[in-house]
Amino acid sequence: MNLQIELKHSDEIQKFLCILNLGMLDSLLEGALTFEDAYAYLYRPYVAQLLKQNNANKAIIDLFEECCMLEDIRDIAPEKLQDAIKLKKKETLDLLKSLSSTEKSMYWLNKFDE
């Protein structure tokens, strides 16, 4: 199986990453994924760098930089981890709500209807 996701517009990329981040945060919160998984899938400095290079909203860049530090919170202050994850979820939802809507919804998966 080969899954391709094609996103060309900055707003759509940011929306996609916010939606993906909500799932990642929920998965961490519920113990469905480890921090090692989260790092492999999404929480790498590269994501924030890529967003910077593409002139993304500063808030989303900051959000992904901070999500990369959740593992540090787990290691240094584990009693604060659950609250930190919940805060990142709220920030992600607020950011998602603030992103402008496109005139027409875009298909994220190539050849979805074919």
What attributes does this structure have?
114 residues; mainly alpha; 6 helices; 0% strand
Sequence-ordered SSE layout with sheet pairings:
Blueprint: H1 10-29, H2 35-41, H3 45-53, H4 58-67, H5 70-76, H6 81-98
Helix pairs in contact: 1-6, 3-4, 4-6
General description of the model:
The protein has 114 residues and is mainly α. It has one domain. 62% of the residues lie in helices and 0% in strands. It contains 6 helices and no strands. Helix 1 runs antiparallel to helix 6, helix 3 runs antiparallel to helix 4 and helix 4 packs antiparallel against helix 6. It is globular. The mean pLDDT is 88.
How much helicity do the residues have?
55-70%
Strand tally: 0
Q: For the report, how would you describe the main beta sheet?
A: none
Gyration radius over CA:
15 Å
The dominant shape is globular
- As residue ranges, the low-confidence spans are none
Class by alpha and beta content: mainly alpha
SS strand fraction: under 5%
The tally of structural domains comes to: 1
| Count of separate DSSP helical elements | 6
Q: Average pLDDT, to the nearest integer?
A: 88
> Termini, distance in Å?
15 Å
Would you list the SSEs in sequence order as H and E?
A: HHHHHH
Protein name: DUF3969 domain-containing protein
Pfam family, one: DUF3969
Organism: Brevibacillus fortis
